[in-house]
Structure formats: structure tokens, C-alpha cells
């Protein structure tokens, strides 16, 4: 199953196997299919959320936004009535700068890992965020405060503390590759492969696990919970794919990544979109993107609605 990882160590062999490399992704996918003028629609999480809400795509509710340094002192007023929430940079990437507050009471903030923070520490975190410490290109940023997602019990033993998510690659409106990212102790509860999360490749027709990797090496058991990763199947799979497919019309981007979480009460929710999705999803699936992209160009119908594209994938994904 993992010959894909073991056999192709040289760049020439990787290209021959259909792996989409960084340069090919940037030139053939991003520059050809994504107009630069559309990047702000996904690079700004506040704008993405508003666009999604306009077409009834489910997203975590927004509690508030802090745009300027003088507004940081108003944090307690903004989160009044909320005992849990997430603070994140509007222009962040790879989970950097995201602060998850699992409980807030009497000016004491408890993070997802159980660490206790005082108001001054949270104040400083937001100040750093506004200064661009976590943003793309180090630009001045905005702090987005939104509701905390409570992930479905289906994932109870598949992720360590943090929220698992599904990453979809969308090409010309079709979901073409998927994985779920599962937090570990090493990743500090974050679903980020570069920080030590587990990546599980998913079958496009069913949402069932195909194989799993940790630091690009094969695994079958979660390193912390010891659950069998091959028993994972994402529920509400069609709904996940539909959110990704709708992102095409919503943004006009021909090649993008969609991150979706499954809340136990509200179902699948769009967390964010990415105009430059990473390529580790190929390792998680044991398959290169080039072959799938060629199949879409050659065999997949054009001018279908988002729902029709999803149904085509569920019945004909190659």
C-alpha cells in the first residue's frame, strides 16, 4: 500500500508517478486557474465567512472582530455571554496564531490543552496577531473571534484533544482528493500535518479511510489514542463534498482547498478555504494529483451545478 512513499525518492520518479510538485502546482494549477484578484476572497477569513453565509454554506458563528490595537481592551465585552470561543488571525495559515479557549470565567482563560491564561496573556496574543506575526507575508491583521466547534462523537477516539477536519482539493468545481487531519499530542491538538498531526487519505465515493501517514510515514494506529485508523469513515460525506463544490461558484477559483469540520449539533461546516493548498494530501492518499486532474479534463462533464458535480463524483470518481 505504501510503495508510493517508499519507491519514489527522486524528483524524476515522483514526476513519473503523477505526483504534482510545488512548481507544477504554482504554474499549471494556481496561476492558470486562480485569478490574483480573487485571492482576498479566501485569504481573508472574515470575507470568506460572509460570502459563505450569503449562499447558506454552514460556518462557525462569528462572535466578533478586532481590527485595531485600541479595540483589544474590549475583548471581555465582545465575548460576554460566551464561555468558550476561538481567536484566529483573519489572514493566517497552517493553524498559526489560533488560540482555542475551552472555558472562560472570572478573567481566567483555559486553552484546549488545559493551560491557564490571564487577560494580559490573551491581550498580548491578540496584539501580536494584529501586528502580523501569524499572517501571510507578515501584513497587519485582524482578529476573528468565532464559536468553538464541538466535533462529532464519531471522531471521539480518532483525534487527540483538537478538532479533526477534512481537507478537500477542488478542481474546476469537482472535489478530486480528500483527507482527514487528526490532531496528536505532538501537534498540540492542532490538525496540522507539519506539526505532527496524522493524515488519513479518504475514498472519494464513500469517505472511508484508505491509508494513513504520520510525518509522511505509514501508520495504522493513532499514536496517542491507539484507535485503528483504518476503521474511520466520515459521516455526511455528500454534505462535505457539496460544501467544497459550492466553494467554486462562491470564489471563482478553479483550484482550491476547502477545510471542513463536523460539528455534533450543526453538521459539516466550512472552516476556511485556501487558494494555494498544500501537496501532502498526495502522500496521505498514496496517489498523485496529476492523474486525477487529467481525468477531470478528459472525462468529467462541464456546466454542471454543484450538486450535479458531487453526484458525479460519488458515482464515477476514478
What does this structure look like?
The structure is a single chain. This protein is of the alpha+beta class and about 325 residues long. The chain folds into two domains: about 5-40 and about 150-315, 2-Layer Sandwich (D-amino Acid Aminotransferase, Chain A, domain 1), CATH 3.30.470.20; about 60-145, 2-Layer Sandwich (Dna Ligase, domain 1), CATH 3.30.1490. It is about 30% helix and about 25% strand. It is built from eleven helices and 13 strands. The protein has helices at about 5, 10-15, 20-35, 40-45, 45-55, 75-80, 120-130, 235-250, 280-285, 290-300, 305-315, and strands spanning about 60-65, 85-90, 100-105, 110, 115-120, 145, 165-170, 175-180, 200, 210-215, 215-220, 255-265, 265-275. A seven-stranded antiparallel sheet has the order 11-10-9-8-7-12-13. A six-stranded antiparallel sheet has the order 1-6-2-3-4-5, with helices on both faces. The mean pLDDT is about 90.
Concise synopsis of the structure shown:
This protein is of the alpha+beta class and 318 residues long. The protein has helices at residues 3-7, 11-16, 22-33, 40-43, 45-54, 75-78, 119-130, 237-251, 281-285, 289-299, 306-316, and strands at 62-66, 85-89, 99-105, 108-111, 116-118, 143-146, 165-171, 174-182, 198-202, 209-214, 217-219, 255-263, 267-274.
Amino acid at each position: 500500500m505504501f510503495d508510493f512513499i517508499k519507491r519514489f525518492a527522486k524528483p524524476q520518479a515522483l514526476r513519473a508517478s503523477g505526483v504534482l510538485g510545488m512548481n507544477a502546482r504554482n504554474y499549471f494549477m494556481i496561476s492558470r486557474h486562480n485569478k490574483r484578484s480573487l485571492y482576498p476572497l479566501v485569504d481573508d477569513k472574515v470575507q470568506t465567512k460572509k460570502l459563505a453565509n450569503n449562499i447558506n454554506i454552514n460556518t462557525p458563528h462569528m462572535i466578533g472582530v478586532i481590527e485595531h490595537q485600541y479595540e483589544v481592551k474590549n475583548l471581555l465585552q465582545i465575548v460576554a455571554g460566551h464561555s468558550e470561543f476561538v481567536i484566529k488571525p483573519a489572514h493566517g495559515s497552517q493553524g498559526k496564531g489560533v488560540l482555542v479557549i475551552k472555558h472562560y470565567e472570572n478573567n481566567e482563560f483555559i486553552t484546549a490543552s488545559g493551560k491557564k491564561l490571564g487577560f494580559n496573556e490573551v491581550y498580548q496574543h491578540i496584539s501580536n496577531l494584529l501586528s502580523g506575526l501569524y499572517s501571510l507575508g507578515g501584513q497587519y491583521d485582524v482578529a476573528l473571534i468565532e464559536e468553538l466547534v464541538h466535533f462529532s462523537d464519531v471522531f471521539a477516539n480518532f483525534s487527540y484533544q483538537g478538532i479533526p477536519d477534512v481537507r478537500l482539493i477542488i478542481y474546476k468545481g469537482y472535489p478530486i482528493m480528500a483527507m482527514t487531519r487528526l490532531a496528536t499530542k505532538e501537534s498540540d491538538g492542532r490538525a496540522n500535518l507539519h506539526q505532527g498531526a496524522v493524515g488519513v487519505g479518504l475514498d472519494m465515493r464513500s469517505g472511508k479511510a484508505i491509508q494513513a501517514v504520520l510525518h509522511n510515514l505509514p501508520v495504522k494506529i493513532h499514536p496517542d489514542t491507539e484507535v485503528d485508523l483504518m476503521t474511520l469513515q466520515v459521516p455526511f460525506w455528500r454534505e462535505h463534498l457539496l460544501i467544497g463544490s459550492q466553494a467554486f461558484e462562491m470564489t471563482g477559483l478553479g483550484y482550491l482547498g476547502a477545510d471542513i469540520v463536523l460539528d455534533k449539533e450543526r453538521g459539516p461546516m466550512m472552516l476556511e478555504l485556501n487558494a494555494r493548498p498544500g501537496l501532502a494530501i498526495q502522500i496521505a492518499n498514496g496517489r498523485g494529483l496529476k492523474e486525477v486532474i487529467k481525468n477531470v479534463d478528459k472525462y468529467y462533464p462541464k456546466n454542471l451545478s454543484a450538486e450535479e458535480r458531487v453526484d458525479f463524483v460519488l458515482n464515477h470518481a476514478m
